[in-house]
Every structure is written in C-alpha cells, then in structure tokens.
Amino acid sequence: MYLLDAGRESKHCYNQQILCPRWKMPFIKESGKKAKDISAVYELKEKLGEGSFSEVRVAQHRRSLRLVAVKCIHKRALKGREALLENEIAVLRKIHHENIVSLEETFETPTKLYLVMTLLTGGELLERILERGNYTEKDASRVIQQVLEAVRYLHQLGVVHRDLKPENLLYESPLEDSKIVISDFGLSKMEEQGVLTTACGTPAYVAPELLQQMTYGREVDLWAVGVISYILLCGYPPFYHDNDTQLYRQIIKAEYEFDSPYWDYISESAKDFISHLLQKEPETRYNCEQALQHSWISGGEALEKNIHDSVSEQIQKNFAKSQWKRAFNATVVVRHLSKRAQDAGEEVETEEEKPAKSAA
Predict the structure, then answer these.
(1) Pfam family of this protein, just one (predicted)?
(2) Is residue 115 a contact partner of residue 192, using CB atoms and an 8 Å limit?
(3) Which residues are annotated as a binding site for ATP?
(4) All domains of the chain, ordered by start, with CATH?
(5) To the nearest 5 percent, what fractions of the chain are helix, strand and coil?
(6) What is the pLDDT of residues 9-66, one digit of tens each?
(7) d(CA 128, CA 132)
(8) pLDDT, tens digit, for every residue of 158-189?
(9) Model confidence over 63-107: pLDDT tens digits?
C-alpha cells in the first residue's frame, strides 16, 4: 500500500519552527497545465487510510483500468502546513527511480488537491518478514542493497530523506521477488534549499548530530540505514528506551551492542557493515558508495542460515502492528477489485503485471 503521510503521528520534530507562506492559489504551480476534475480521468474507489487533513484511496484509470493510489488533501484542513506539502511535491517531481515511489500526476480543485501515486501492494518490510517461512542474512542484504541504491540516487540529486525506517520501506507487489520501494517524503529536503538544521524524524532512527542541534547532511540517511540493517538481523532496534531522554543519550553516544544470543549466529561481516554505518561522527560514517562496496552487500559474505524464528519473534515483541500505523491492506483491496472486475468481465492492470522499470 502507499500512504503518503496520511496523518501519521509517528513523525517527530524537535523545536522545529516552520514559516509557512500565506495560502497561494493555485497550489500546483505547473505552467501550461489547467486544473481539471480527477473524476474525468480516474474512478476513486476504496479508502486505504485517512489522517487529519487527507485520505488515501485506490483509484482506477478510466481508460487503461490501471490501479493507483490517490492522496486526497483538503486544503482548508492543510492550513499552516502548506510549505511542507510544497516541499514534498517538489521532491517527488524530481525523482524517478525503480526503488522510490512515483508521483505520477496531480489534480487540483478550489477545495482539494489530489496526488496520484504508484499503488504498492506488497505490504511493509517487517510484515513480509513475519509472513516468510525462511529468512536469512542474504535476504536482509538484498533489501539493504536496494535501499542503498535508492538513497545513493537521492543523494546524487541533493535530496536527503530524513525519515528512513522500516515502515517507509514497502514491497511493490506480493510476489516473492518483488522489489522494495522507499516511500513517504514528507520530511525530505533538497540540499540546495540551504543548511539542514531542523531536528526531525522518528526518534529511534535519528543520527547523533541531528539530536545535538548541529548542522547536518546526507549522512543522517546512512545512520538510519544502519539502524534498519540492525533490526533486520535481530528483530529489535539498537537504541531503545521508554524514556525519550535516555534514548537520545544512547544515540548521541552511539551506545549499542550485538547482544547474545540474538547475534551469536550473525556473521562478523554483517556486524562490521553495521558498525561502519552507526558511527557517531558523520565524517567517519560510510557513504552510499562505501556501503554498497562492503563485502556483506556485494562480496557474498551474507550467510544463508535461516534466522526467521529468532528475528520474527523479536519483531512481534518490539514492533506491534499498532506501532506500524498500518492502514487497510492494499493487497486485500486489489484482490477485491480484481474479483469484481472479473465478475463483470473486465481486466484490472496492477503494477506487478507490468514489466519492471529501469532505474533512472
């Protein structure tokens, strides 16, 4: 499923002051393109989720019958958050990569804004791990490799995501060989917009420099990849405390361990890879190129021993479904729509039935 920040409460901004411009009409600044009614192009169907100022629906293109996800934003409810949305749209229009969610087109009326996105039906990363019967370091390595390739592309464009976490890593389709896709660019920032100083993100995944009210850069994304890699190999985060202050102290000091027995059967190569990402100092932290060249990613050193039982047990303990902020399962919606279409003698085109796009 794709939920472009449909009112999630999982994002945190610390001492953040955002100066939002006075409401401008139209919101979409696209020369030569007139606002038109989305219903002339798409039929809006089942709701996937909703938030304080928007809802996400499955929609079907009236000509091609292809299914997409549409974020429907109520302008009046958005008041005061215009700058954030403008930034998100600007970033999404700039990026085109097979492992990053796509903004396909936009529509605008006097009262609503519609963002047409790729419909991702494969579910969240941790959710898929739980459903597997076999899961290995090699599986985790493949996921992280795709994430790193996407993040490298973002950094080459001067985009910092700032909110990488398992909940924002979705599978394109339910197929076993489905690719992973980075979503949710609500906190992303283009480096050309100026120095990054705002302390924002999701607490367990933020880098030390971000919490210390220092200027920071793209290195914060690599720290988050390190945290995600750690979780994928044991099922719990490297930094955790019920008290946020204590959690931040752990992160600032980069205090974590490879606890026994959970890490006893994990390769030294995997631990070395994580250690290079969870470096306290941004200058000594791996960049994307270095991480992609590490032997755990590209040198065949990721083990093929099944670690599913231990990892899935810890995921269930530490990542409750309520914490994942999961909305209605898009896979169920697609199956329901497909069945209805078949009953009516129609065809429904979904993303997994299309050839994979080449990386930009």
Answers:
(1) Pkinase
(2) no
(3) 79
(4) 12-121+327-344 (3.30.200.20), 125-323 (1.10.510.10)
(5) 40, 15, 45
(6) 334 444 333 333 334 445 555 533 445 689 999 999 999 888 777 889 999 999 999 9
(7) 6
(8) 999 999 999 999 999 999 999 999 998 888 88
(9) 999 999 999 998 888 777 788 788 889 899 999 999 999 999 999
User: d(Cα 210, Cα 9) in Å, to the nearest integer?
Assistant: 20
Selection from 332, 359, 358, 337 nearest residue 347 by Cα: 337
pTM equals 0.81
The CA distance from 217 to 196, in Å, is 6
CA distance 235 to 317: 9
State the DSSP code for 309. Answer: H
In this structure, what token pair is assigned to residue 16? 């953040």
DSSP three-state, residue 228 = helix
Q: Is 101 exposed, middle or buried (0-12, 13-18, 19+ CB in 10 A)?
A: buried
Residue count of the chain, please give it. Answer: 360
Cβ atoms of 164 and 228 within 8 Å: the answer is: yes
Catalytic site positions: 163
Pairing of strands 189-190, 103-108: unpaired
Residue 219 · residue 209 · CB < 8 Å? yes
Residues 241 and 231: their CA atoms lie apart, in Å, by 15
